[in-house]
Amino acid sequence: MNRHTIPAFGMNRSERESLRQQGVVVTLVSQSVTCDPLRLRPHYHDFFQLMLLRGQGSVIYDFTETAVSGLTLFFPSPGQVHTVRRRRGFDGVTISFTQEFFDHRSSPPSALFELPFYFSTGAPPLLKVPRHDPGGIAAGFDEMLREHDADELHAAEVLRAWLRILFARILRLPGLDRSVLQPTRKSALIRQFHLAVESGFREDRTLAGYARDLGVTANHLNDVLREETGRSAGSIVRQRRLLDAQRLLLHSDLSVSEIGYQTGFPDPSYFTRFFRRETGHTPAAFRGIIREKYQPKPR
Predict the structure, then answer these.
(1) Planar angle of CA 51, 139, 132, nearest 5 degrees
(2) DSSP secondary structure string, 230-253?
(3) Of 79, 182, 193, 202, whose CB neighbour count within 10 A is largest?
(4) Omega before 109 within 30 of 0, i.e. cis
């Protein structure tokens, strides 16, 4: 897979910029591709998506095209190449969200990686919703779209709660975990690595240590991750540690040194250099910027 020929897109620009900055955008599929037609080309993201598709069309994921009809759930994982092909009357709702938004103040490991929908171990990232929609899945998506567009007080908290409710309802659907497909070695390794990172990113673990625990060599682990996600193992670990540091800078009153220590950097100066290299700001400057941005504004 030549990642240089595949575009990576950020979240859709939205009039609800405060919500996008917090890591969540809910939009109609038709609105998304009207604003940016290039999204109809195969592309990937560095965030998660949950999509409810309505009508007849097709979904492309990792170069596999599957026809869909009725109500269909689609779960693009970060790094997964995907797009949709629309026919007349085909639409849906897309929920784009970051791991930081989903986790909020929850302690690791992230419950997001306990869900079977992302970094799948072989089953297609699609799930058919029965015509009568016993779990009220479509109503939940519509409620999230209304909540996002209204952008009222505490909208992010409501959207986060609805997202968790939707996942709980989806877990009740028939057909889940009944795929006859067997996991591939590569997809299983990727999921196992992400789960290992979730439980060990705060430790001073080496790539060789992760690889040894997974029963592979460090070179093989890196090769599989680059081929399937476009990212190295080290990049994934660094981004997870950075995510935790950013969350603590926003939500806690810990000092920069204490946050560095908690996220696996016993040397405060090294933590500051790492943070500045990844974000362009020192931890202290980032804390000031992010808290000012998220300071509740009077309505």
Answers:
(1) 95
(2) S--HHHHHHHHHHHHHHHHHHH--
(3) 193
(4) yes
Residue type, 55: G
Nearest alpha carbon to residue 236 among 263, 196, 275, 271: 196
Whether 62 and 82 have beta carbons less than 8 Å apart is answered as yes
Residue with tokens 């290039």: 38
Of 187, 180, 232, whose CA–CA distance to 207 is shortest?
Answer: 232
CA dihedral 246, 260, 113, 230 (to 10 degrees): 80
pLDDT bracket for residue 268 (50, 70, 90)? very high
How do residues 8-61 score in pLDDT, each as one tens digit?
888 987 778 999 999 999 999 998 888 888 888 888 888 999 999 999 999 988
Domains of the chain, start order: 3-170 (2.60.120.280), 185-294 (1.10.10.60)
- Tally of CB atoms within 10 A around 34: 10
Q: How far from the centroid of its chain's Cα atoms is residue 61's Cα?
A: 16
Q: Does residue 105 surpass a pLDDT of 90?
A: no
Residue type, 121: T
Q: Which H or E run contains 285?
A: helix 283-294
